[in-house]
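Blinded run. Sample ID left blank on purpose so nobody reads anything into the name before looking at the predicted structure. Input follows.
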Amino acid sequence: MISESLLALASAGGASMVQAAGTDGWNAIRDRAARLMARGSHESEESERRRLDRTAAALTDSPDGGAAGSQAAAWQAGFVVLLTRLEGAELHAAVAELRALIDSGPIAPSDTSASFAGSTFQGPTAIQTGDNNRQDNHFGHSG
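Blinded prediction complete.
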């Protein structure tokens, strides 16, 4: 049985893989994730790299974002399997590697032209980046 904190970490890892696909940092993140999942096996690392490439292709082939949920869930499941089969120092090392992988991921796709660094907003503000998202904002009083 996996703890709630490890399950949350695995979920964040799955989401991170989906967010990173198609960005400038994808190759580096893909390679780190493949090494993490392979745990030292060169053959497994190549297999994981191919699996990650299929993830990126599935996300690219699904412009409406329909594949994102299933791809994130698949990687979450993979991270859960990894974390449940490790113990002790190996588990601690894998957790640290997964956290570092998540922390190194992009916040938004690199092909977006939006930049909010140094911006000043006064009053209610809502910002959204990315493709195929939906955001409904209601400012003021309802009545």
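Unblinding after everyone has recorded impressions. The CA atoms of residues 45 and 99 lie 19 Å apart.
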